[in-house]
Amino acid sequence: MRVGIASILAENQRLRRDLAAQAAALAERDAQVAERDAQIATLTVSNEDMAQRLELLRIKASDRRNQRHTEGDAAVIPLPFVFVEPEPPPRLPQPEPVEPPPVRSPRAPSKRRDLSQPSGRPVRKIRCAIDPAAACAGCGGPLKVFAVAHSYRLEWVPGHFETLDMERERCACLACPAAGALVAPPPSFALPKAMCGNGLLARVLVDKFADRIPLNLQCKRMEREGQEFSTTTLSDWVLRAAAPELLGRIAVAIDERLMRGAWLQADDTGYPVQDGLDGKLRKGRLWAVTDQQEVRYHFTDTKEGPNPASFLAKYSGKLLLVDGGSEFNLAVSAKGLLRAGCGAHAGATLFSLIESCAMQGIDPWAYLADVLSRIQEHPVNRVHELTPMNWRLAQEGRASV
Fold first, then answer.
1. CB-based contacts of 85: which residues, under 8 Å, 6+ apart?
2. I need a surface site. Which of 117, 271, 375, 400 has the fewest CB within 10 A?
3. What does the pLDDT look like over 44-63, one tens digit per residue?
4. Given its phi and psi angles, is residue 284 left (phi above 0), alpha (psi -120 to 50 degrees) or beta?
């Protein structure tokens, strides 16, 4: 009987211990669950806080002026899983009504397009390779081509537009990675930072100065052909092409040859000029000096005598064919010339070339397209080789006399 009671008591103790162990395990699990719930709550609050902060950053980045935000909203956000006592998430500021900006005249959006995208135009690829003799500037070792850089231009050939895809090799020295990469130079273009090729630039110049098509009408015609440009863009091309360091050099070379001639013919005419921002025209003077082989135009603001005297100052001939206007009296008396016969700034340069092409019986577009592709690298002391007369003689295979 004692054995039975002792056994019951021992079993009771064992059951109590098991129940205590199970209760402790349940308490530990409840603590873990509570800790996990706290983590989830913290992450939830942190995610909501991060979402609202990201919204504030998005508002700042998009520069939405109808939203208000303060610099304090960009405080440092604690990283997830770094559990801190969360603060109540900030409320997004409510948009407040703002006064509309002053009404301005609508400005046409930029008409420049990404030439790398398919457009239906023919694509002409030009491979620009690294000079095989090029070597690393640091160690003198060989250079290895590792990529190809693409640049694009819009070109015009008689009949249609096309896209020039210039594939420029990129190379580097494997032994000197810190030396950086070398990129093959692109082909020679008259306007290095413009999107036009030499053929398209030549077309604009010929249309403007040979066919007398204003730039705004050229823009409308190009738009019908699928290419959109602003008159500002075309005007910039014209002014840069006529600059003294570009086609202006050829006009000077024409002038130097004329000044060495035995006789010259000269005359002037009124020429409208728009220099100001008010859109008003004023009247300038366009002077033509020719020997019937080439012609040089000069632009002046007035018809006064010092103007022709200045551009005839280096004339070494003796005969001047002009009308009876008094504007040539100073030049005739200063140079002792025998007078016989009777009767804008960028434009003077370009008219000189275009009209000289007509006198030589050559296509002005073919002439300009060729010269524009060569003039950047042509020696300055041999620029006379690019005048329309010498260009024609070179095309015919004869040297200029």
1. none
2. 117
3. 877 777 877 777 777 766 65
4. beta
The closest of 346, 386, 365, 374 to 250, measured between CA atoms, is 386
Query: What is the spatial order of strands in the sheet that 338-340 belongs to?
Result: 295-300, 282-290, 263-273, 319-321, 338-340
Q: How many CB atoms lie within 10 A of CB 305?
A: 18
Residue 1 has pLDDT above 80, yes or no: no
Q: Which of 220, 241, 131, 121 is nearest to 183 (CA)?
A: 131
Distance CA(245)–CA(343), nearest Å, equals: 35
Q: Among residues of the chain, what percentage have pLDDT more than 90?
A: 37
What share of residues in the chain are helix, strand, coil (percent, to 5)? 45, 20, 40
Note the pLDDT tens digit of each residue in 291-305. 989 999 999 999 999
**Any idea where the domains of the chain sit in the sequence?**
2-74, 123-187, 202-395
Q: What angle do CA 125, 130, 133 make, to 5 degrees?
A: 150
Encoded tokens for 347:
């434009």
Burial 366-396 (b: 16+ CB within 10 A, else e): bbbbbbbbebeeeeeeebbbbbbbbbbbeee
